Amino acid sequence: MPSVTDPALAPASASALTAPAAPGAGPPAPSRTSSVAQRSWVPAVARGGLLGSLLRSPKAVVGLALLAVFAILALLAPVLAPGDPSTIGDLASEAPSASHWLGTTAKGQDVLALTLWGARSSLAVGFVVGTAATLIGVVVGLAGAYFGSVVDDVLSLVTNVFLLLPGLPLLVVLAAFLPPGAATVVLVLVVTGWAGSARVLRAQALSIRGKDFVAAAIVSGERAWRIMFREILPNMASVVMGTFLACVIFGIGAQAGLEFLGLGDSSVVSWGTNLYWASNDGALMSGAWWAFVPSGLSIALVAFALALVNYGVDEVTNPRLRGRRRRKASRATSRPVATPQAAVTEVTR
Amino acid sequence: MRFVLRRLGFYAIAFWVSITLNFMLPRLMPGDPVSRMLTQSGARLEPDQVEQLRRLFGLDERPVVEQYLSYVASIFRGEMGVSISRFPTPVSEVISSQIGWTMLLGLTALVVAAVIGTVLGALAAWRRGGFLDSALPPVLVFVGSFPYFWLAMGALYLFGVTLGWFPLRHAFDVGVVPEWSAPFAANVATHLVLPALTIVLVSVGGWMLGMRNAMIATASEDYITMAEAKGLRRGRIMVRYAARNALLPSVTSFGMSLGFIVGGALLTEVVFAYPGVGYQLLASVQALDFPLMQGIFLTITAAVLIANFLVDLVYVRLDPRVRVS
């Protein structure tokens, strides 16, 4: 292997391995499944990179902590609220009390249990949709940016068409025609959600595609998929993470919206179906706010936490958004650079 | 000119995709949806309707290609079939009676949110670390994290049910005849406040952050330093030099949102029972009125495409760089 490529690849490994350390935000699998490991792939110091800086951002820490709380509550739902949460009890529309901390619904179900169990479905769908949409976006964006010409034209066209089709109406129409069920919900959300991430990732991949180390990799005869997933992809790990978080937010919100409209899987307990039933049973009109607030607040808190982490990632990777205005910084940052680490190694190269 | 033609071609393809999607979806439904619908709707359908439905679901005997061609042809003639839930009103008539309300609601909310958000964003970026910059964005992001419909229902409960300040549903009072008069306009306006307000509340944060970030980028450009060196007043630099150039991304997203107005307020319309296109779309889904559903979806798509094309045209005028490349 020519020595030219080695220093050029150092920034790649630095940012590639920081992303997976963040909870739940695994990197797209292809970069890790490859068995061809020729160089030392994990510089121990570099590992602290993105996550280390992320932990210094108060916004990101609050976000990660909130996410962890919800994940734990969702996992512990069978312990904290044993039994079927949708069991119909005899105490209907009870206000919060010692026996029912969050009150009961019009059907006499315990709202706390419904909220805890709802977290499981909502979080799972959100993360599955986020992962799938990001994966498609990564593959489409990378392939378009790497191969260029006709491949890029076709992929960009498809992406832009999907971006342009109005999301929620398409969601409603698709959900109306397809058989109801959890798989349909996920499928519909992925179909309507992947295009945005593909566009962002393509733009980023395109700017990395023009760098010298990619040219060096092509000259040294590396295969296309290897250059795409092990040379280019690791350099845009922060952008991938940003789009992943955005996709998860989209997934959770859109699932709730779909289920609130009664188009989701109404047999599953999720935050969306909780709100659907609360609204159907006229909880608000009768003043039973406790049937309504917990699920909505949970969705908002999770989305807020994800947005905070995203904000943190943005600040860490885009120095211009950090702190006060710094004039002189503009020249260095106006170049498309994936991470600060990449920028540093690039300058020293 | 080349640019405009290329965009036009792109929108033509996008429209073709949505027509094709519309054609294929009913045919992908398993089993015999028509007879299932007949049993569900209690066999109150006229023979005409049944025939129309069979054709819609591809159950007539013609080959698929022929069905497809005649479907596309009928779209371009503006024939979208006859609504089933409102038989025998044509689909196009149902839509045109409601699209005005959707546009009124969407346009009001969009303009208010975009103006307020952009001004706040520009001010926040100009005074980095000030109150607007540090306190407001997190609050707005938090408000923006709530599901649209949840906030809407909260507002409906608080201002409609508990306080009784605003009406609970519909675009005007029951029994009032729509007419061009001041009392009717006032009636419509009071019905508009709550739905529009909830949309503004959740969308203003996005406008503000977008403008803030664009403004921060422009604020470090050399021509700003130049303007300061010339001794121009701060206010003038902010508005004429920084904000003017930072506005371009916001203009783009304004144009794109313009297209999404027609379909974007679906949830809001449902919560407030606002008689717009989105509300009708959900109603047609619940009534299994597939022709109406498809018609609305096509109308929404067409609106998005037309709005985007208009934005492209405006963009050529606003940004000289587009004309060159």
Describe what you observe in this structure.
The complex is a heterodimer of chains A (349) and B (325). Chain A is mainly alpha-helical. Chain A contains 16 helices and no strands. With 325 residues, chain B is mainly α. Chain B has helices at 2-28, 33-40, 47-56, 64-76, 91-126, 131-134, 136-145, 148-162, 182-219, 222-229, 234-264, 266-271, 277-286, 290-318, 320-324. Chain B starts with a helix and ends with a helix. At the A-B interface, helix 7, helix 8, helix 12 and helix 14 of A face helix 1, helix 7, helix 8, helix 9 and helix 11 of B.
Draw up the topology in text:
The complex is a heterodimer of chains A (349) and B (325).
Chain A lengths: L4 H12 L13 H4 L15 H8 L1 H18 L1 H4 L30 H37 L1 H16 L2 H11 L4 H28 L2 H8 L4 H9 L4 H24 L10 H10 L12 H25 L11 H5 L6 H9 L1
Helix pairs in contact in A: 1-16, 4-6, 4-14, 6-7, 6-9, 6-12, 6-13, 6-14, 7-9, 8-9, 9-12, 10-11, 12-13, 12-14, 13-14
Chain B lengths: L1 H27 L4 H8 L6 H10 L7 H13 L14 H36 L4 H4 L1 H10 L2 H15 L19 H38 L2 H8 L4 H31 L1 H6 L5 H10 L3 H29 L1 H5 L1
Helix pairs in contact in B: 1-14, 5-9, 5-11, 5-14, 7-9, 8-9, 9-11, 10-11, 11-14, 13-14
